[in-house]
Amino acid sequence: MTTTLDRRLAAVLSLPLALALALAGCADRQEGADVPASERPAEPTGSAASTPEPSPTPPTPAAPTPAASSGRPPLSTTDLPTLRPPTGPPRHPTDQLKPNVLAGRISHGGDGPCYTLVTDDGREHALYGRDKGTWPAGTWVRVTVGPAPAGVECGSARPVGLLRIERVA
Questions:
Q1: pTM value > 0.90
Q2: Whose CA, among 21, 46, 47, 151, lies 20 to 30 Å from 3?
Q3: pLDDT tens digits, 90-108
Q4: How would you class 128 by CB atoms within 10 Å of its CB: exposed for 0-12, middle for 13-18, buried for 19 or more?
C-alpha cells in the first residue's frame, strides 16, 4: 500500500516539473533572441520600413524543417507495413515439428529394451532400444525415434526404434 502511495505522490510531484520543462522550450523565443531567417516575417520595403505598424494578429511560425535542430532524425511520412487478414486456414501444418521426435508419458516402463510411450494425442508407440536405462511408468520424456528393428516385438502399439530418450519436466 505504501508503494502505491509513493508512486502516486511521485507522479503528482513530477507534473509541475514536466510543465516547467515544456515552458522552458519556449523561453529561447523571447524578444531580442536570434531567430532563424526562415522564421522571420518579411521586411516591408520603401518608407514604411522605418516605422513598422503593429499587426492585428501575431505572425505564424513557419512549418518545421525535416531535420530538427535537436539532432533527431525526421519522422517518417510513410505508413508501417501491416499483414493482410488470412483468406482461410493454412493448407499445411504451420508447426515445424521434427517427424522423428516424440514427447509423452511412459505407460509401460522398466529396464528395457521395450517401453510404451503415450503422446498427448493418445497414440501409443512401442519403443525398442538397448541400453537406454530404467524408465518407470508415468515419467514424461522426449524421445528421438528411428525405423523399427526387424523381428522385434514390443507390444501392439506402433513399433519404432528408440535412438535417444530424455526426461522432461
A1: no
A2: 21
A3: 888 777 767 899 999 999 9
A4: buried
